[in-house]
Amino acid sequence: MSYLLRVRLTDRPGSLGSLAVALGSVGADILSLDVVERGDGFAVDDLVVELGPRSLPDTLITAAEALDGIRVESIRPYSGILDTHRELELIDHVAAAGHDQLQMLVDQVPRVLRVSWCTVLANTPDTAWRLFGSSGVPETPPASFDFLPLPAAAALDSDAPWVPTPWHDMNTTLAAAPLGAIGKVVLVGRPGGPDFRPSEVARLGYLAGIVATVLS
Questions:
Q1: In DSSP terms, which residues pair with 55 in a beta bridge?
Q2: Which H/E stretch holds residue 87?
Q3: Partners of 102 in the beta sheet?
Q4: pLDDT tens digits for range 86-96
Q5: In contact, 16 and 45? CB cutoff 8 Å
Q6: Residue 16 pLDDT more than 90?
Q7: Fewest beta carbons within 10 Å, which of 24, 130, 132, 137?
Q8: What are the pLDDT digits (tens) for 22-61?
Q9: Which residues contact 146 (CB under 8 A, 6 or more apart)?
Q10: At what angle do helices 198-215 and 86-95 cross, to 10 degrees?
């Protein structure tokens, strides 16, 4: 089974190699790696790791955190498609989708940004819930849309009053970005976390801006 492992590690030569050896010692193979964020002396990476059927995911955490300077921020099952040009493929698919462009967008975003669900709303407080939604979008609608209109991409406060209780109970982290040229906003959720980092929010914003231009 494959897992998406987010790790924060000291950004020094050999750190990633040591992590690979540690994961290999518990029977795990690294299938892909994406750099999520790089800061002053640290890096945050997303690793897709394949683990044998008799191994428990907790062994990945134990192996990684046994190393100095490495902390596992989250781990969750991963069933996405591994590719290296996800954003370009999304834009191409949306452009070719004809009248179903927004539905294509929400269907593709979870794979591209490694979130659990995506929906498109009108960028106004009186929008309807789920104008377009991917699989996994919560059935429980927000009590209001106080975060709209949204001027720029942002990580949203998961404890805000408008967030439904079931979302809160599942520790759903949220981010959104305006599709400015068409007056809509794309909202993404990740039950169980991790939190959206600034680099992920920026990536969502850039992608939304390009897609909005295509759609207009």
A1: none
A2: helix 86-95
A3: none
A4: 777 778 888 88
A5: yes
A6: no
A7: 24
A8: 998 998 988 888 888 888 889 898 888 998 878 889 999 9
A9: 125, 160, 161, 162
A10: 20
